[in-house]
Prior knowledge:
With 547 residues, the chain is mostly helical. Helices cover 71% and strands 0% of the residues.
Amino acid sequence: MTTLEVTLQTTMAPSLKELGNIWDYIGYPEDQKTGKLNSLADSLQRCLLEFIRTENEYRIGLESRIESLKRKAAQVCQSLHLPPYFPPRGLPSLQLLTQLEQHIAQYEVEITARQGSFNQRLQAIKDLSGRLGLDVDAQLQSLPSPGANPDEFIPSEQDLNKMQRKLDELQARHDQMLASFTNFCQDIRRIATDIEYLPETAAEAAILSDSTQYSMASTSSKSLNNNNNEKPLSLTESAAPAAWPLTDSSLSELAAWRLRLVKHKAMLVGTCDELRAQVALLRQRLRLGDEDDEFQLSRHQGYRPSDLAALQSELARCQNLRDGPMASAYAASLRREAAELAALCFASIGDVVGAGDPGLTNEALEARVEQLRNRYESSRELYDTVRLYQLTWEAYLDVEQRMKDPSIFSNRGGILLKTEKEKKHLLKELPRVEARVAEQLRACRGGDRFKIDGRSFEEHVQHLWDGFKAEREAAKANRRVGRVSMAGSSSDLSLHQSGQLPAAAQATPAANHHQQHQQPISMQHSAAPSRKSLAPAVTAGNTSKRW
């Protein structure tokens, strides 16, 4: 017997026993008991069949629901690109139904998360495209679409990855444009502040007043994950005027504006520097100091419009002084400046500037001063080297003069030794500097036309040495004449005292003294070295002979 049969028999046995007792008490005959028993059996059979029919209908419905859940699970797995789900074999229908419902619930959570992530990315792409001035439909054309029933659309991992790549592309473009926008604004504000620029439109005023603050929340892939704590994206734009959206055209306008400001600043800088140089030169030539008047050049070293106006005003004032009450002083200052430059260039002030021409105008003097300055600056290294030779030569002459001092021999171990070392050093340095000048003259354009007092540099150096040697020979001759005169004077004095000197001989010392006085002066004039000038190409042979 099955458990069901035992349960039914155990449950109904007391009732059947009580029914038999009732029939015995009533005293039904056997045939009547049999009829009632058959009637009871038929009634129980009908109830059992009805119960069985109901249970069978429930079984059929349960199987139908299980099959439906199996099909849904297969579709969901296919949509999510997951492996198909196979429930364990041999499970009763109710357990199988529970298993299917649990797995489908898990799939529905995944579907909801994917749909939310897809919609989130889709909205972010639309917002970014709109803010960047792009066509939204064109940006969405290559992306998966939810179709007419967005609730039934289940995006795949590939769809989400494609949406994320598009979003990252737009985000990178946005970040680049935002950085450019910020840099343009900062540069424009800085330059406008430097040059005291006044805005011409409300859009420019918004940029210069620092009221344009364009910001955007992060939409990077790090914030777009597939978890349940995902927050919606936020795109914010605070106080950004409509005239400056974050688009390519706006960036082009800002770039053009910045370029205009840069050019204007460059114009101001160049103009102010030029005016400052002109004002400084005029004030120097007019001998105007900061303490002499209200204008102080040191206070206008910038390049703002206020500095430009002040420099223009001061330039006009200095020009009025130059052409009016201080014209003669200005001309004298120009001649002094020309003389200094002529000395630097080893040129004659009379030949270059026309010092003896009283009708020379200030404009002509300025032109010649500028010509001399350009001449000096173009060959500055050459002139400086020639001047170095001149200074070295003068130092050598000074040493030679000190060597003639008799007091130098009183301290032979000190001053004499130092002076001799200095002389040897200068004798070595002179040919080196001379060779440097010759090399620079060969390398310099037009160096063969370089003249000092009408002589080439080599001739000038030879002239210096010839004069030095002539002066030294004249000094030796003077010393010899002096010794002879002193000896003759002593002899004549002794003869005169003895009364033996003739009258003609007594006149000889005076004549000799006159001759002695005349010769050194002429020799000295022919040997005096010139400090003003020096010039090109020396040869190694001439240099070695000179030493």
